[in-house]
Amino acid sequence: MPDRGAIENVLNRYSLAYDENDMADMADCFAEDAVLTMSIQGGSLIGPFEGRAAIVKLMADSLASQNDQRRHLGTNLIVRGGDEDSAQAVSYLTLIAIQDDTLKVLSTGRYEDELVRQDGTWRLSKRHIALDLPY
């Protein structure tokens, strides 16, 4: 059975790494051969972004284009199946922006993840981000 706490930790590390612009920690959240895809409002698939370096570049470029403070809130985590070295998880995203003393919900969405444990550390091997609204 997968370690739910360790899986939750890596998902939260991803969010904090983005919000704190810590691309080294962001990279450590992904397996070297990870794949990330996205969709917005059920539209066409964006990606795949293949490999840790491509995913981190996508996140760094996205962050560089923003002039607000983002907060990625992950909730409703369900770990589905898996074993000691692999797992599937689904959770919700609420994306908040703070700018000029104003708080705004930019979007909500769903993370669909596959994770692997490598050298004792859980990492994302596949992540699909399904956003409910563009931001």
Q: How is this fold's topology laid out?
A:
Elements: H1 4-19, H2 23-28, E1 30-40, E2 46-50, H3 52-64, E3 69-82, E4 86-99, E5 102-118, E6 121-131
Parallel strand pairs: 1-6
Antiparallel strand pairs: 1-2, 3-4, 4-5, 5-6
Q: What do you see in this structure?
A:
By secondary structure, this protein is of the alpha+beta class. Helix content is 26%, strand content 53%. It is built from three helices and six strands; from the N terminus they run H-H-E-E-H-E-E-E-E. A six-stranded mixed β-sheet has the order 2-1-6-5-4-3. A hairpin with a 5-residue loop joins strand 1 and strand 2. It is globular, with a radius of gyration of 14 Å. The protein starts with a helix and ends with a strand. The model has no long low-confidence stretch (mean pLDDT 95).
Features:
6 strands; 135 residues; globular; single chain; alpha+beta
How would you concisely characterize the structure shown here?
This protein has 135 residues and is α+β, with helices and mostly antiparallel strands. It has helices at 4-19, 23-28, 52-64; strands at residues 30-40, 46-50, 69-82, 86-99, 102-118, 121-131.
Describe the global form.
globular
Roughly what fraction of the amino acids lie in strands?
over 45%
Strand order of the largest sheet: 2-1-6-5-4-3
Low-pLDDT windows of residues? none
Count of separate DSSP helical elements: 3
**What is the helix/strand order?**
HHEEHEEEE
Rg over C-alpha atoms, rounded to the nearest angstrom:
14 Å
Strand runs, count? 6
Mean pLDDT: 95
- First and last CA, distance: 37 Å
User: Which structural class matches the secondary elements?
Assistant: alpha+beta
Give a quick account of the main beta sheet: strands, pairing sense, barrel closure: 6 strands, mixed
